[in-house]
From TrEMBL:
SUPFAM superfamilies: Winged helix' DNA-binding domain. This is BadM/Rrf2 family transcriptional regulator. Gene3D superfamilies: Winged helix-like DNA-binding domain superfamily/Winged helix DNA-binding domain. Pfam families: Rrf2. GO terms for cellular component: cytosol. It comes from Sphingopyxis fribergensis. One of its GO terms (molecular function) is DNA-binding transcription factor activity.
Amino acid sequence: MKRDSRLSGVLHVLLHMAEHRAPMTSDQLAKAMQTHPVVIRRILGGLRDAGFVRSEKGHGGGWTIARDLADITMRDVYDAIGRPGLMAMANRTEAPGCLVEQAVNAALDTSFQEAEALLLARFGEVTLAQLAADFHARMAARSLSPTAQEHIHG
């Protein structure tokens, strides 16, 4: 089963934007994310609708963060991108006639719901400011300039 990496990608884009501190074009962000500018515009359009980013057209325009990073949680971003599925596992059938499978489904459903609630609660505790601080700590540990805009890969 293919993993859904949209949340990771959107968080990555937002942190690049926050580090740049000036409007970034879809082309610039696409280059940083190794994707097509249309993908970036589609993602950021949804975040604009949620009030997390804004865009300006024309010379010197581009995408910027619209709110303080401390006011945006991973849960906010998750909700803004349409709440993609968190669990790759699922019941074999949703309405089984077999009583054994009904018992299995009931146990799995409860576990899935509890795991999802914990994960969403954790997403609500982590702000973009915390992610940015972690990034800066990692840069400092590598003795890199805090204004570096390129990808930092291990």
